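Holo prediction. Input below; ligand is adenosine monophosphate.
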Amino acid sequence: MLIFDNRFLRELPGDPEQGNVPRQVFGACWSPVAPTPVASPRLLAHSREVAAALDLDEAALATPELLAALAGNGVLPGMATYASCYGGHQFGQWAGQLGDGRAILLGEAINRQGQRFELQLKGAGPTPYSRHADGRAVLRSSIREFLCSEAMHHLGVPTTRALSLVATGESVVRDMFYDGHPVAEPGAVVCRVAPSFTRFGHFELPAARGDRALLRRLVEFTMARDFPDLAFDPASDVTTWFSEICQRTARLIAHWMRVGFVHGVMNTDNMSILGLTIDYGPYGWVDNFDPGWTPNTTDASTRRYCFARQPLIARWNLERLAEALALLLPGPDELAAGLERYDEVYSSEFCSAFAAKLGLCEFTHDDVDLLEDLFALMHQAEIDMSEFFRRLAEVDLERPSIDVLQDSFYREDLRQRHSADLTRWLVRYAARLRHDPQSPEQRGARMRAVNPRYVLRNYLAQQAIDRAEQGDMQMVHDLLEALRRPFDEQPGREAFAAKRPDWARHRAGCSMLSCSS
Ligand code: AMP
Ligand code: MG
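Structure of the complex:
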C-alpha cells in the first residue's frame, strides 16, 4: 500500500481553473489535471529496485488497481493528480511558460523508512501546459527513458528513476524525422519516480514575471522539502542553498562525462534542482570518442549540447537560475560564490573520476597532459570510449602494447595510422603508474569498478525497441538485467558490451535522434 503526503499541492498555491484549456497560469505552481484513460493498459516492464523502494511487492504490482494508476486509468487512495508550472531557456533563448505538458504528478509517496518520492506519469494525456501537443508518448521513447534512467542509477549517476513501463493499447501519431511523414506508433506511459521533479525553470518563471512572492514561497518550500538535511535558515539562506545546487550540478556533469553520457537537450527546464539526470529524450552514449558529438538532430548544426560542452552549458544554466534567485537578494553578486563552487567542484570531481578510470590513486598536475593527450588521440583515432577504458586495465605495463585495445578501434586505417602514437602514450602511462603505490591487482579491480562493461548504447536501445514494437519484450528485460550490474563481466551477455556495429553508424535511433517522442 502506498501512503501519500502531497506537500507540493498542500503548501503551494494552485491554479483555480479546471480543465486542460491551454493557458498562461499566474500566481500558482500547479494546475489540477486528471490523466486521460487509455484503451487497454498492459504492464510491459518494471524496476524491481524502484518497486522495493516504494514498498511494492510482486503481489501489489499484479493488482488491477495499481496497473490502472500506472496507466492513468484510475487513482489510488491518497493520490492527487496535477501538472506543475515552469518556464525555461531552450537552446539559449527564454521560452516563457512551458510546464508539465505531458507529465502528470500523482502525489508524493512516503515509504516505510519515511523517504519521500514524487510519482509522475509521462505520456498520460494533455494538461493545461500541452500547448498544441497531445500529452502522449510513444513506446520507443518510453523504452529509452525506462531503460536509461535505471541504467544510470546502476552506474552511480544521480537520476530520476522509472517504476513502470505500461503499453496503452493506443497509437500515437509522430513525424519522427520532421519531414511531413507522420506515422501511427504504439503509445506508452512511464511512471517516473524521484524525490523531486522540480527544475531550474520552476524558479525562472515567477522571476521572469516579477512575481517575487511566489518565487519566495517556492524557494522556501523547496529548501524545506527537498533539502531537509541541510540545516538552513529557510527565510534567508538562498546563497548557501544555491551553492549546494551548484555543487550537485557539478557532480552530476562530472558523472555524465566519466560514463560518456550526452543528455542532448540541456535546456533549463530539463535541469533538476536536486542535480539528477532528468528528461531522457534524444540522449546518447559516446561511442567513438568525439567531444563535438551531439545525439540530438535538432542540435546538429550548432552543437550547443555536444559532449564536451556539457560542463559549460550546466554553468550557463546555473547562471540563469542565479539571475532568477537574485530577485530575492540585494544583488546578483551574492550568488557568484556558488558559481565559483561549481567550477571548483566540477574540476575536482572530473579529475578524480578520470584518475580512477586510469587507475591512478590521485590526479596530479602532470596528469593533465597525459589525459589531454589521450583524449586527442582517442578523438583522432576514433577510439571507443567505454571499450578503451575497460580494456586499459589489461595492458601489460612491463611491455605496453595496443594488442588488448584492438577492439576499441572502429576503423582499421585509423588504427594503423595511430598505433605508434598510442603505443607511445601507453609507455608514458606505464611509466606514470610506476610512481603509483598500488599493486596491479588492486589497480585492475579498482579500474573495473569504475569503467563500465555495459552502457546503454543507442543501437542496443534501438534493437530492443524494434523487437518491442513487434510485441517481443525479451530484449528490454535482458538489457535491464545486464544494466543492473554494469561493472561485472556477465558471461553470455557479451553482445550487450559490443561497440556500435557498422550498420548502426548512420541509422536513425542508433546514432542520432530527433526530439520527436
Ligand atoms: P522536452 O523537450 O521534452 O523537455 O519538452 C519541452 C516542453 O514541451 C515541456 O513543457 C513538455 O511538457 C512539452 N512537451 C513535449 N512533448 C509533448 C507532448 N507530446 N505533449 C504535450 N507537451 C509536450
Ligand atoms: Mg523537458
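The chain has a mean pLDDT of 96. That is the main takeaway for now.
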